[in-house]
Amino acid sequence: MKVLAFFAHPDDETMLAGGTLALLARLGAEVHYLCATRGEGGEAGDPPLCAPQELGALRSEELACAVDALGGASLRFLPYVDPSVGPDNTLYAFMDDPVRLAQELRQVLDELSADVLITHGSSGEYGHPAHRLVYAAARLTAQTWASPQRLWYTVQAAYPDSPKPRLLNENDPAHWVLDVTPLKAEKTAATLCHRTQHALFVRNTSKQMGRPVSVPEVVVTLESLHRAAPPAEDGLPQDALALLLCLSGRVREEIAAHG
């Protein structure tokens, strides 16, 4: 099985689905990574680990480190620049043409002969315009690419009692909720790779938990997937990825049973 994980920025792959992607690699899937930007507009650390003009190169190295930690097979970047955060923490997309982005995505899918596409969800997790753009491009691509043998799944699908409900895509009900505790070492290693983002990770999680936390404490071990295309029939999807997940023993049955 060949999987393409397509995300907007370095660290999205780890924080949103790192355990799942590491699990698929452990189960024998070829997991390839495509990142739309090099994260040039993000934080550089506190204190900064590089000059602003060096951030894209450093975050590219961090993503390569994370992909290796997660057992990834390859990493590619699209040629887009991540805009800087605006006033009042306003976030921006990296371009405004989902049709063009869909064409670029389709080219990579075809080059890899991918069986599964995994992307951001419909609301961009916390509403990030770049995440929503990736979803929109994937939706366009799926119209002609998806089939019973070629699957599109999205991350951070909605389910009860999530440890980070702010990140859930509420319109994407979870088909699979996975306990990735056995992959915590891989996910933690990937998180540690993203050194420029550690201050951000710790700040957000400390605010959520109401106490100071360390970088390893930001790692969560429940992750969820929604099959976006082809649409799942009533109940749980019956497809090659579903079979692999069930055989892994990592499906949290009490939630999956209500998928």
From TrEMBL:
GO molecular function, one term: hydrolase activity, acting on carbon-nitrogen (but not peptide) bonds, in linear amides
InterPro entries with a match to the protein in the record: GlcNAc_PI_deacetylase-related, LmbE-like_dom_sf
Domain of life: Bacteria
PANTHER family per UniProt: N-ACETYLGLUCOSAMINYL-PHOSPHATIDYLINOSITOL DE-N-ACETYLASE, N-ACETYLGLUCOSAMINYL-PHOSPHATIDYLINOSITOL DE-N-ACETYLASE-RELATED
Protein name: Uncharacterized protein, LmbE homolog
